[in-house]
Design goal:
The protein is mainly α and 196 residues long. Helix content is 71%, strand content 0%. The N and C termini lie far apart (85 Å). It comes from Microbacterium salsuginis.
């Protein structure tokens, strides 16, 4: 027996947990993807995600056959977080924009990827969910007099997209300041007008 075979025979092997590990592996891959692409951008090798997550490449491709699938999974988490965040009746469009800035600051590579593939059904479904939560906030803010009658859900959705895209193109150290300035512009544009 060779020394390599002998060492394999003597070392404890990790038990194969099969389907029981699938959800855990998927979560680890999404977390790893956020880290890898935040550090290295979209040019980071896909295999680096599997390595960071501590799973095999086969597992990566079973869960996410391409980069868009992985980006959609990251944004699904983001949209779910936004849905939960804006559910309380006191939440406003201003709160939504704050949260979009916070998410965009750490998800810039995914913003680039997902906005390049808007026709993908996985991306379109996330867009529909985001539009639904924006519509809810617009109705809430209009009823409370916080935004003008000239603003509709499409305006807020566009503003959020512009904000996220601008942050994706901004140097990491300047993102918080740029996010705050852009958000202030949108808040001023959304405010009720004297004729409202």
């Amino acid at each position: 027996m060779s020394s390599t075979a002998s060492s394999r025979a003597n070392s404890p092997s990790r038990p194969n947990r099969g389907p029981a590990a699938a959800a855990e592996n998927r979560r680890a891959l999404i977390t790893a993807a956020r880290e890898v692409y935040a550090e290295g951008g979209l040019n980071s090798p896909f295999s680096a995600v599997a390595k960071r997550a501590g799973v095999g490449q086969g597992s990566l491709y079973r869960h996410f056959p391409d980069r868009t699938a992985l980006a959609a999974a990251v944004f699904e988490d983001n949209v779910r977080e936004l849905e939960e965040y804006v559910a309380p009746p006191e939440r406003t469009i201003d709160d939504l924009l704050d949260r979009v800035v916070a998410q965009a600051v750490v998800s810039t590579a995914f913003i680039e990827l997902i906005t390049a593939d808007m026709s993908d059904p996985r991306v379109a479904a996330l867009g529909a969910r985001f539009n639904a939560l924006v519509t809810q906030l617009v109705e809430r803010d209009r009823s409370a007099g916080r935004i003008g009658a000239h603003i509709d859900a499409a305006d807020v959705t566009m503003a959020a997209g512009m904000l996220a895209t601008e942050l994706a193109r901004t140097e990491a150290s300047a993102r918080p300041e740029v996010g705050a300035r852009a958000k202030a512009l949108f808040v001023a544009a959304f405010a009720p007008r004297s004729a409202d």
